[in-house]
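Worked example (supplementary).
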Amino acid sequence: MNTRIGTIFAQEFRLARRNLWVGLATGILGLFAVVLGVFGAGQGAALDADALTLTAASLATLSVYLIPLIALLMSYDSFAGEIERGALALTLASPVRRWEIFVGKFAAQSLAVGVAILLAFGAAGAFLALSFGTGSEGIAAWMRLMATAFVLGSVFVGFGLMLSAMAGRTATAAASAVGLWLVLVVIYDLALLGSVMAASDGIFASQVFPWLVVANPADAFRLFNLALIETAPVAGIDGLASTLPFPPTVALAVLGLWLSAVLALGIRRTKRIVP
Amino acid sequence: MTQSILDIRNVSLSFGPLKALDGVTLAVSPGERLALLGHNGAGKSTLFKAILGFLAPGEGTITVAGHRPGSDAARIAMSYLPEVVSFPQSLTGREVLAYFSGLRGASRSEINGLLDRVGLADAAERRVRTYSKGMRQRLGLAQALIGAPRLLLLDEPTSGLDPVSRHDFYTVIAEAAARGCAVLLSSHGLEEVQGQTDRVAILSRGRLRASGTLAELAAAAALRTTIRVTAKQGHADRLQADLGGRRVNGCRLDIDCAPDAKLGLLLQLGHHRDVLHEIDVFAPGLNDIYRHFSDHEGDQA
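After joint prediction of all chains, the assembly is encoded as:
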């Protein structure tokens, strides 16, 4: 890491901490994880699964909503706000490369989301494991959840930064971030469910539909986690997890592809900014 | 003449049909302070963005210390202070300077000296949120001085500052110029930069209307002095018949004259002292000179 990326990274991470994003995200994620775990623990005996595995499954479904939202909130203002305040012109007047700015911001904010996930899910997982007991399967499910949640957060930090560089204005960036969240996290699944019910032939449901689901980074995260938890009580679109026509690692590859795509697109948009 | 640090030759830049810059030629030498004056929308900020390499001119060339704008060498040679800048509120003054030091590859050891020079040493560990407008602008100036740039680009640096802050600000700029730094600063008005810069250039509607020292501009403008005479009741007609001039109302008369004819006219007025009530002399001020160059020729364009 060169000095300039390091400088941007250090400032962005400091800002994420000072603006209480890390603390706030840790609090929210930790609270949800503990509450889900404690409520879910009662069903554990009936379903013959340990608390950590069960909670990992329900937390994966909830994290699909929360983590993209937190990542977008942290990143949407990053370029647009600096353009509006005139601060980006100063940064760009220095010998820094545009891609270095994007990469520095991306790394710092991804790490901020990652630290929040590690602290919140780590502490909640330890608490649940100690309170209700667990086995190797539960610990593995929990580790997978934390690691993929971090990747999911990074993808959406990349999305947020790209939209911010594209919009150039805080209000526009905020609107597009909310729009993206609604489309990828809420509307996409509803539209797919609607179409699979409307389609009469089985080919769409069995061959096309799973690929369309896994193409969405949020769904890819959820499918990967649920597909590897055999005892997960799943319903709706998540039921797909047990009948996937491809190995779960495809979902990981999709997340990786999205990550490279938002990085490449974001850097391209950053190069076009006229402060 | 020494080699210019900033050399702008015949630069034109358009936004669609709007010509923001039209054939601008300008040079700033080491140690020289040049004020660029113009209304809002005259093209000052566009010119700055072209010098910074954010906008590419349609025609003409710009070089910064011999390098193309936007190249690493040009960006290292020059630093910039925009008109409105707000640093992240939750950082301290020292952290802001450390950030720009890191980006410019400058040594962090100079930060203390810079904070001292702009009078922020005591506030270095405080959050920018608690700074006054003047302190923020001084922090901006300290940022611009990181790495001893050879060209300082200051976009309306003192607008909104109180007279004391403004004076302190120009003292720091003068020190930088004394060390051989070239300074290009923009401003709305001549009074603000009077005595603070070596040369003045006036930009209006994208064209450079005039450039030179204040004395040169005043001479080139050759503005006329106005003598306003108030006559006693009923004597204004006789005065006008004798001296010419324009009637303002029943008893007032405005007489324009070249600066060197002023004394003769006043002596002539002495002959009419019995009918005179009052005499006011209006010498052309800085604002008149500025208006002369920015409006007058604009009308012909």
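Two points are worth noting when inspecting this output. Residues 224-283 of chain B form a domain with the Alpha-Beta Plaits fold (CATH 3.30.70). Chain B touches chain A at residues 49, 52, 54-55, 72, 75-76, 78-88, 90-91, 95, 98-100, 102-105, 143 (CB under 8 Å).
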